Amino acid sequence: MAQNKDSRTKKQVVGDIGEDIVCRYLGRKGYNIIQRNYRKKWGEIDIIAKKVGVVHFVEVKTVSDVGFGEDNIDSYRPEEIVHPRKLKRLARAVATYLASSREDINWQFDIAAVFLDRTNKKARVRYLEDIVL
Predict the structure, then answer these.
(1) First vs last C-alpha separation in the chain
(2) 90 with 57: CB under 8 angstroms?
(3) pLDDT per residue over 50-96, tens digit each?
(4) d(CA 60, CA 20)
(5) CA–CA separation, 38 vs 72, rounded Å?
(6) The 32-40 sheet, strands edge to edge
(7) How far is residue 48's CA from residue 31's CA, in Å, rounded to a whole number?
(8) Which string of DSSP letters, residue by residue, matches 23-83?
């Protein structure tokens, strides 16, 4: 069921902004966006994209207005906030997506960290490829 825009939390709004930024980032890098917010009861995949015959399942983590300096951004590790329970749910959603395909798919799991500076209307993306589920 779709949520009314007025009923979304700040976290949901920031998450959507981060996903929009990552989709544009991936497009500039030659990825084709297949789907956003692939949802099942047991998990969700933020972005599914394809590049050079490989399907990328992308988890997006967005940090907003936290006063990161360059040193803090460089030391921030988004894969550390994708906890084992989340990884299990992601793995189940990926398995469901793959099972629904009628072809053998080369795939990988990636994490995109988005650092938003809403005051200066800037964003930085750090993209981590081929994370083990």
Answers:
(1) 28
(2) yes
(3) 999 999 999 999 887 655 555 555 666 666 677 788 888 999 999 99
(4) 10
(5) 31
(6) 32-40, 43-51, 54-64, 106-117, 122-131
(7) 10
(8) HHHHHHTT-EEEEEEEEETTEEEEEEEEETTEEEEEEEEEEESS---HHHHHH--GGGGS-
The DSSP call for residue 101 is: -
Structure confidence at residue 63 (pLDDT): 84
pTM assigned to the model: 0.85
For residue 2, what are its two tokens? 């779709």
Q: How far apart are CA 3 and CA 80, in angstroms?
A: 29
Q: Give the tokens for residue 20.
A: 């929009």
Residue length, the chain? 133
CA dihedral defined by 54, 133, 104, 55, rounded to 10 degrees? -20
Q: State how far the alpha carbon of 7 is from the alpha carbons of 2, 12, 19, 99, 113, in Å.
A: 10, 10, 19, 34, 25
Distance set, CA 133 to CA 51, 52, 90 (Å)? 20, 21, 8
What is the Cα–Cα distance from 45 to 82, expressed in whole angstroms? 13
